[in-house]
């Protein structure tokens, strides 16, 4: 199983509930092994298996929950 990192810069995380919601959404996607949401910085780091999910699926899941993705980086 390979893994990739994805860092999302998003707007709309204003509370602990928002932070937990984004974490729950991302970790509920098959192939995601870890997600860390920093509400203060407005960033999310996700480690995922690209054989099971794509960056687009992760980004779309966050956007469908009502958050705006401003930019992202992968590595």
Describe the structure.
The protein is α+β, with helices and mostly antiparallel strands and 75 residues long. Helix content is 29%, strand content 37%. It has helices at residues 16-27, 55-64; strands at residues 4-11, 32-38, 43-48, 68-74. It has a four-stranded antiparallel sheet, covered by helices on one side. The chain is globular, with a radius of gyration of 11 Å. The protein starts with a strand and ends with a strand. 20% of the residues are buried.
Keywords for this entry:
alpha+beta, 75 residues, 4-stranded antiparallel beta sheet, 4 strands
**Global Rg:** 11 Å
Strand order of the largest sheet: 2-3-1-4
Helical element count?
A: 2
Largest sheet features = 4 strands, antiparallel
- Give the overall shape: globular
Strand residues, percent:
35-45%
Number of strands: 4
Mean pLDDT: 92
Order of helices and strands: EHEEHE
How helix-rich are the residues, as a percent range? Answer: 25-40%
Given the helix and strand composition, which structural class is it? alpha+beta
Structure summarized in a few sentences:
The chain is of the alpha+beta class and 75 residues long. It contains 2 helices and 4 strands; from the N terminus they run E-H-E-E-H-E.
Write the SSE topology:
Blueprint: E1 4-11, H1 16-27, E2 32-38, E3 43-48, H2 55-64, E4 68-74
